[in-house]
Amino acid sequence: MRSLVYYVASTIDGFIAAPDGAFEFFGPEPEVARHLATHWPQTFPTFAHPQLGIDRPQGRFDAVLMGRATYEPALKLGIASPYAHLKQYVFARSLPPSDDPAVEIVSSDAVAFVRDLKQQPGGDIWLCGGGRLAGQLLPEVDELMVKVNPIVAGSGIPLADRPFDLQHFTLVDATPIGAGVVMLRYSR
Q1: Is the pTM value of this prediction over 0.90?
Q2: pLDDT tens for each residue of 110-119
Q3: Which end of the chain, N or C, is surrounded by fewer C-beta atoms within 10 Å?
């Protein structure tokens, strides 16, 4: 069975973006970018691969899940398939179907869709964001990979936007990757 992995950058106080959705403040610093390009090349948008020296992004993922707000910045730049090296599922009720065969707009129940997707053959599934989608899918998340940045935001889009409902994970690894960023890996 495929695993759902929520791989995301966060502030120390648990925000993945500013209240307006901006996330550029995360950087990354050059040493962090090098580490991520080496260990997590699939998580960079396809258009960034040449600048980062990524030839063929190998790794554990063959699919990525995004909410509408996570997908829209690429659309505004005219990029319909930001992660063309992965099968992309965008959860949005008001977007029309995509003309790109690598992008599927999903308007059905996210939890039921992901439960079915996890049963299909393939690699692991990357939950890219945002906070509302992560909140809906948190009970289905098998692994959390949180890049904790040395920033306190005070408010913004939370890591998982959902009502109070404790979800327990076990810390598997904590790796400093440079510039004060620590990669925390949790599993169910």
Answers
A1: yes
A2: 999 999 999 9
A3: N
